[in-house]
Structures are given as C-alpha cells and as structure tokens.
Design goal:
By secondary structure, the chain is an alpha/beta fold. It is built from 17 helices and 20 strands. A hairpin with a 2-residue loop joins strand 3 and strand 4. Helix 2 runs parallel beside helix 10, helix 4 packs across helix 6 and helix 8 packs across helix 9. The two termini are 21 Å apart.
Length: 493
C-alpha cells in the first residue's frame, strides 16, 4: 500500500463513526481499539459509572471492589492492556494462604486441598484430602487408579467424570464447592474440555483421573491464587483508565443513557445506522445517534433484544439458557479476632450446606485492602446465588440483607461477628452470563456469532460470547473491534 493510499485510508477513518452500547470492560476495550485508527467513537452506558462487573465503590469510607476483584494471568492479555495504560506498578498478587471449604458433613470446615484441578485431587490419600472426604472417600477415589484403562472415555460432563472415577464424596465435597464458587454452576453442567483443557487427554494417557490431575498440576502453580492478580486500589481503576484513554483519543463516553433500539437508515443516508436512546434528565425525549457501525457490549438478554431485529431470526431474542444471578455483600467490620485469618483468604461451601455459596476475606487476601482498612478492621465479601437458584438475599429489606450477610460471614469464618462491630454493608447484584464452561455453551455462542457477523457493520462483545473473566473478554473484544473496523475501511457497502 502506497503512502497516498495510507493517507486516503486515514482520512476515511476520521470520517467514520462507531457507537458502542455498554461501558463494561468489553465495550471499553472495543471502543479503544476503534479509536486507535482515528475513527470517531461514542460509548453509551445506561448506568452512572463505567466498568460493569469490575465496579468499585465506597463502603465505610473505603474504596473497594464490589464486583470482580482479580484477573486471570493466562494469556497475558490483561497484563498487556494494563501496561499499555501505564499502571503496571499497581498490579498485586494475592496472599497464597489458600481457601477453606465449609459445610463438610462430620467435619465442618477444613482447608481446601492444594494442588488439584477444579477440586479433583491428585492424591486422594493426602492428609489434606482425607480430612475432607474421609477414609471411605479416599478408598473410593483410589479405585480410579486401579480401574482398567479400557473403561476410560471422553467425558463431556465434569460431574459424570468425577462421580464415575472417584465417587460422590470427591464430587460433593471438593469439586462442587469449586464449580459453584467459580462458575455458579453444578459440576454436571460443566464441560471439562473447556474448564480444564487437556484433562480428558491426560486421563487417557495416564490411565486415571488422579494421574491426569497430577500431570496437569505440574504445568501450573499449585498455590491457590497463583494464576490471578489484582490492582492496588481495585479493579475499577482499569475501567476508569480505559474510559479516560478513549476520551483522550477523541472518543465520547456518555453515562446515564439507555439504548432503546438500533435501526437501519435508508440506503441514501449519510450513515448506515441510527441508535435511539433515552438519556437521564431529558424529560423522556429520545436522542438519535447516527453511526456507520454499532458494537453491542451489554449483558446477553439486552444484547439479544437489540440485535435480533437487526440481524434477523437466526439470533433468538431470548437467551437459550439464562445465566446465574449473583449478589455480593461487602462488609466492613471491626473484628481483631479476624487478624489471624482463621479461614485463609476465603471459604467455599458444599452446595446446600449454607445460604451463601462463598466468602472472600478480602483484607486477608489483598495487602492493599488490609493497609487501607487498618489494624483490627476487616473487609469480607459474601456471595449468594448460583445457577437455577436466585440469591436468598434478594427481595430482603436492606437491614435484613445486612443481617443475613453478617450471619453467614460469622458461620463461614468460624468467628462471631456481632452486629455492633459491622460498620457498613453494601450489596451489589449481578446478572452473570452463562459460564463458558457449561455444556453446550460453545455451540450456542458459535450460532450467535454467525448470525451477528452476517451484518458486517454490526458487532457484539461481552462475557456471554467470550466467556467470563477479563482474560477471555479482552482478546475477544479486540478481535471483534478489528473485524468491524476492517469492514468499514476495506469492504464495499
């Protein structure tokens, strides 16, 4: 391409306008990519802050993570973005003390064994494993080692695989707490090929599930938290830095603006698309944004509602399977008894044993939180809700929500936290996407992408397509933004 061609391309880019619907991580990353080639970008966000699930807020005077608190290091995508934005010095590692599991029949609570994969142990007779599953469970799990290799096949359900190879105790007491806490899903609904790539192959090669876990464990850190990092001051700083960078590049980020509809303009119009939105404080008057392309970056249900009229019947207007709803209660408490971190960095629960599915002792997990809180003050995050079960905290009055969160925190930490010691409780509710590791999700995603990409100037990003977690959301958003901008610059319309 000649210099003249490049100059023409640059001029063309400057005349193009892209609207991004949603200012979560995916939308912000996509918008930033669009601005890199000089295109005009408008990001429209219905709420009053950017970030989506990586939101921060004040609790008892402390600025804390209220949603996602860390990022997976795999692939290096998040670290690379943080480096581009200039605050790599704020990346921090969690305490490696590890988590506990609570609700174990006859045991109560115990440290979660280290070195496993999705809770599956490499050595069922290890002392930390036996403490949770008992001798009976250990001997049943050992049968996995002596079963004939010919019985080994390719499993599409993690629950079926673990139950058949190692038994119900390993499944209920070790694996289910992990899948519930991490994926908000039952092990029976998890595809091991996605949740633990290579497990099925290693199983066939080694002849046992425990052997496969041992092989995979050698390739990764056995310390819980070793595969994740956080940001000093909270993950919300990443979203704010992305928004600031977009505006520095000439983009516009509009908060408090809800998109009602995406319409195709007439063929003779200057722009191909019209984005209709309601803005807070505009007396219900609708605003129209004209665009050459639109990227939808909302949660799945509103994304499908906006996209299906545009791309046609190939994309269902409703999600095939609704994602789980999760509520996180963040408590700031005065409790010197928690200085010793009696349950490590947090607690997972055996499904059905507690009203909460998990707890994170944030001030024990992250040094920056401990430093901000000060001696004797602790930050605890209690999570409610899983697939097929709405959070029990939903629908309660704020006072009742705070009391339930305090009771569950006391039970899971093994320390009585009295009401007078609670400085503040803040509850945030999240509609999550169906976990990418759920059986059948890959096929559903592929069908949705095919329908959306049938219209070149329409794109979609977000966890419902890429899978949850910034390590998956960021590269997917970059790729989709690149597809849309290439369509605008090089494809004939």
């Amino acid at each position: 391409m000649s210099l003249a061609d490049l100059a023409d391309l640059h001029e063309k880019a400057g005349e193009l306008h892209v609207v991004v619907v949603g200012a979560g991580a995916a939308g912000l990353v996509a918008a930033r990519e669009i601005t890199k080639v000089g295109m005009q970008v408008t990001v429209v966000e219905a709420s009053d802050q950017v970030g989506g699930a990586i939101r921060t807020g004040e609790v008892a005077g402390l600025e804390l993570d209220l949603g996602a608190e860390s990022f997976a290091t795999r692939g290096g995508h998040v670290a690379s973005l943080i480096d581009e934005l200039g605050f790599s010095d704020d990346v921090v590692s969690p305490n490696s003390a590890g988590a506990w599991v609570a609700g174990v029949p006859g045991v109560g609570a115990a440290p979660l064994p280290k070195g496993g994969v999705l809770g599956i142990p490499a050595n069922p007779f290890g002392e930390d494993v036996r403490r949770v599953i008992g001798w009976r469970g250990a001997w049943r799990a050992y049968i996995d080692r002596v079963r004939p290799p010919l019985t080994i096949g390719h499993a599409h359900s993690l629950g079926v695989l673990v139950r058949s190879r190692m038994g119900q105790r390993v499944l209920d007491r070790l694996v289910a707490p992990v899948t519930s806490g991490v994926y908000s899903a039952s092990p029976d609904d998890i595809d091991p090929d996605i949740a633990a790539p290579g497990l099925n192959t290693a199983l066939t090669r080694t002849g046992s599930l425990s052997g496969a876990v041992a092989e995979l464990s050698e390739k990764r850190s056995s310390a819980p938290g070793g595969a994740v990092k956080g940001l000093r001051g909270g993950m919300g700083s990443l979203a704010r830095a992305l928004a600031a960078d977009i505006e520095d590049r000439g983009g516009d980020v509009r908060l408090g603006a809800s998109v009602v509809e995406i319409e195709r303009e007439a063929p003779e119009a200057d722009r191909a698309w019209c984005v209709v939105l309601d803005e807070v404080g505009d007396d219900d008057e609708q605003v129209e944004l004209l665009a050459d392309a639109v990227i939808v970056a909302t949660e799945e249900r509103p994304a499908r509602a906006l996209l299906s009229p545009v791309v046609g019947s190939a994309l269902a207007a409703e999600p095939p399977v609704a994602g789980p709803v999760v509520s996180i209660a963040t408590l700031v408490v005065e409790s010197p008894e928690l200085d010793a971190a009696p349950r490590g960095t947090g607690v997972l629960t055996v499904p059905g044993s507690h009203r909460a599915k998990a707890l994170t002792h944030a001030s024990a997990k992250w040094q920056w939180v401990a430093d901000a809180a000060g001696s004797g003050t602790h930050v605890v995050r209690v999570s409610f809700g899983s697939a097929g079960a709405a959070p029990v905290i939903d629908g309660l009055a704020p006072e009742a929500q705070a009391e339930l969160a305090r009771e569950e925190a006391s039970a899971l930490l093994g320390v009585s936290i009295d009401a007078a010691s609670v400085r503040e409780v803040r509850v945030e509710r999240f509609q999550q996407s169906q976990p990418a590791a759920t059986t059948g999700h890959r096929q559903q995603t592929a069908a949705a992408r095919t329908a959306i990409r049938g219209v070149a100037e329409i794109g979609a990003v977000g966890a419902w397509l890429s899978g949850t977690g910034l390590a998956q959301v960021i590269p997917d958003a970059i790729n989709e933004a690149d597809r849309v901008r290439r369509a605008l610059l090089f494809d004939a319309h």
